[in-house]
């Protein structure tokens, strides 16, 4: 008698995702954006969303695939001026990845860089502008560079430049893996 189990019907990836409680939308990262005149701006500095969902004139959600690098800036003001500057560079994760919870980012992301305050945010924005001047898209920059900037900011050390040679080394290493 044959004790081997029969192969039976093979489930498609979408059916397997459905069985595991995941669907195609679960692998996407949703980043909330908002704009209230002269009071609050939550916007993307860089990132390539696959879709933008507009809720109304003031609120949107940008949708990113797994692995996408995104930079979101938060600016807040009151009657007396700016009260908060915040910049985050994050990488969208896979559904089963361990990710950090970030307000307005669902289901979460890998936080590569977090800058809070006028001087740190302006310093990072200068680095982003310098990267774009080199003709390199900030989404293509090595995640290790963003982490290095975060560590240097936290330690109060000078921020390193991102040079073409560093970018070429990152691309070569990525091609090998």
UniProtKB/TrEMBL annotation:
It comes from the Bacteria. InterPro entries: DUF2840. This is DUF2840 domain-containing protein. It comes from Marinobacter vinifirmus.
